[in-house]
């Protein structure tokens, strides 16, 4: 994906991407010169998130798997679980807001 393709994201896709950028489990924002890539780094996770966003347990499972695969943290890590809970809550809020706009 390039920057022009970012412009074609829907409102929901853009908002999910921004949530993932803010979460930044990879820590790409700390890579200095490569930090600008953060806008494209998480786009590949948007569609899988949208597929399960209406089922909280599935969304939680997806994000936990993503986080543990990317960060190497243990799935039982309490801090990670709290982050995932907050992330799930925010993503579901965004989904409902975007659905309400339709």
- Mean pLDDT across all residues, rounded? 85
Shape: globular
Strand content: under 5%
Largest sheet: none
Helix and strand composition category:
mainly alpha
Number of helices: 6
Break the fold down into its secondary structure elements and pairings.
Blueprint: H1 3-6, H2 11-23, H3 38-41, H4 46-52, H5 56-71, H6 78-101
Coiled coil: 70-97
Keywords: Coiled coil
Search tags:
102 residues, mainly alpha, 67% helix, globular, coiled coil
Question: If you had to describe this structure to a student in words, what would you say it looks like?
Answer:
- The chain is mostly helical.
- It has one domain.
- The protein has 6 helices and no strands.
- It has helices spanning 3-6, 11-23, 38-41, 46-52, 56-71, 78-101.
- Helix 2 packs antiparallel against helix 6 and helix 5 (56-71) packs across helix 6 (78-101).
């Amino acid at each position: 994906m390039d920057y022009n393709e970012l412009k074609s994201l829907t409102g929901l896709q853009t908002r999910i991407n921004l949530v993932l950028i803010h979460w930044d489990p990879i820590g790409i924002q700390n890579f200095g010169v490569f930090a600008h890539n953060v806008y494209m780094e998480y786009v590949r996770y948007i569609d899988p998130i949208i597929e399960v966003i209406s089922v909280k347990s599935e969304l939680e499972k997806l994000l936990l798997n993503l986080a543990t695969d990317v960060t190497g943290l243990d799935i039982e890590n309490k801090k990670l679980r709290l982050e995932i809970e907050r992330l799930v809550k925010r993503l579901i809020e965004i989904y409902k807001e975007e659905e309400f706009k339709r």
